[in-house]
Design a protein that fits this description.
- The chain is mainly β.
- The chain has a single domain (1-77), classed as Sandwich (Immunoglobulin-like), CATH 2.60.40.
- It contains no helices and 4 strands.
- It has strands at residues 11-14, 20-22, 40-45, 48-54.
- A 4-stranded antiparallel beta sheet has the order 2-1-3-4, with no helix packed on it.
- Strand 1 (11-14) and strand 2 (20-22) form a beta hairpin.
Length: 77
């Protein structure tokens, strides 16, 4: 949303199934063999908020930043 650029490699999954895909270099995706009972797509990418959207033939999905400020980070090796 912030820069308007496409998200390459975002996960797009039909909720409640194993049917899904990832977005291409232009941020586009196509899913075939969607069950007729399916109603929701889950779109996610690291660092961006996951979106759940009603399935439509043509969709435009905008992902928002999921940035959080951390006070402290501990690394254990």
């Amino acid at each position: 949303e912030e820069d308007g650029l496409p998200v390459v490699g975002a996960s797009v999954l039909v909720k409640g199934t194993t049917v899904g895909t990832v977005t291409d270099i232009d941020g586009n995706f196509t899913i075939s063999n969607v069950p007729s009972s399916a109603g929701t797509l889950v779109v996610s990418f690291i660092g961006l908020q996951t979106q759940e959207l009603d399935i439509r033939p043509v969709m435009k999905v905008v992902l928002k930043s999921d940035a959080e400020v951390l006070d402290e980070v501990m690394v254990v090796a």
